[in-house]
Amino acid sequence: MWQQIFLGFVGFCAGAIIAGGVVGLLIGLSIVPRYAGITHTANHILLYEDVTLLGTVLGNLYFLYHWHIPLGTPFLIFYGVFSGIFLGAWILALAEMADVFPIFSRRIKFTEGLPKVIVCVALGKIIGSILYYYLGWM
Questions:
Q1: Cβ atoms within 10 Å of 31's Cβ, excluding its own
Q2: CA 20, CA 57: separation in Å to the nearest integer?
Q3: Cα 69 to Cα 92: distance, rounded to the nearest angstrom
Q4: Contact 137, 131 (CB under 8 A)
Q5: Would you state the pLDDT for residue 51?
Q6: pLDDT of residue 138
Q7: pLDDT of 95
Q8: What is the pTM of this model?
Q9: Number of neighbouring beta carbons within 10 Å of residue 26
Q10: How far, in Å, CA of 103 to CA of 121, rounded?
Q11: Which of 3, 31, 105, 135 is the most buried (most CB within 10 A)?
Q12: Cα Rg for the chain, rounded, in angstroms?
């Protein structure tokens, strides 16, 4: 019994650390402030940071306790669209911040076809996500 309590505590602490790291990365890389600047709503930056943290905590609780949300297919489509937008924006923001593609292409002397590579990476992510959710690999 004590072993299960200890493992539960360690798992909870590990989840809290991961969630805090994700939120810290979002805010630390200025992704949230950048969105606020683009949308001209910088006066709500603290609200954005609070909602980001709340979303991370609720997402962890959802996956931990396997809550059932009986809102049907329209909500699932709504959630999927906005999750895809968020994930795409997250990936683009990280790529922009780190300048991954220019550095990589310079190092391997890759001068032609870079837009095709970027499109193929995006298509691979899309196909992988569709297979993941369609085939139920969760």
A1: 19
A2: 9
A3: 30
A4: yes
A5: 82
A6: 61
A7: 66
A8: 0.48
A9: 21
A10: 17
A11: 31
A12: 19
Amino acid identity of residue 71, one-letter, is L
What is d(CA 137, CA 134) in angstroms, rounded to the nearest whole number?
Answer: 8
Asked if residues 18 and 57 have their Cβ atoms less than 8 Å apart, the reply is no
Q: What is the DSSP string of the chain?
A: -HHHHHHHHHHHHHHHHHHHHHHHHHHHTTHHHHHHHHTT-GGGHHHHHHHHHHHHHHHHHHHHHT-----HHHHHHHHHHHHHHHHHHHHHHHHHHHTHHHHHHHHTT--S-HHHHHHHHHHHHHHHHHHHHHTT--
Task: List, run by run, the mean pLDDT of 10-residue segments along the chain (138 residues).
Answer: 87 79 71 77 84 78 80 86 79 66 73 78 86 78
Residues 6+ apart with CB under 8 A from 57: 19
Structure tokens at 86: 């968020």
pLDDT of residue 41: 86
For residues 137 and 131, what is the distance between their CA atoms, to the nearest angstrom?
8
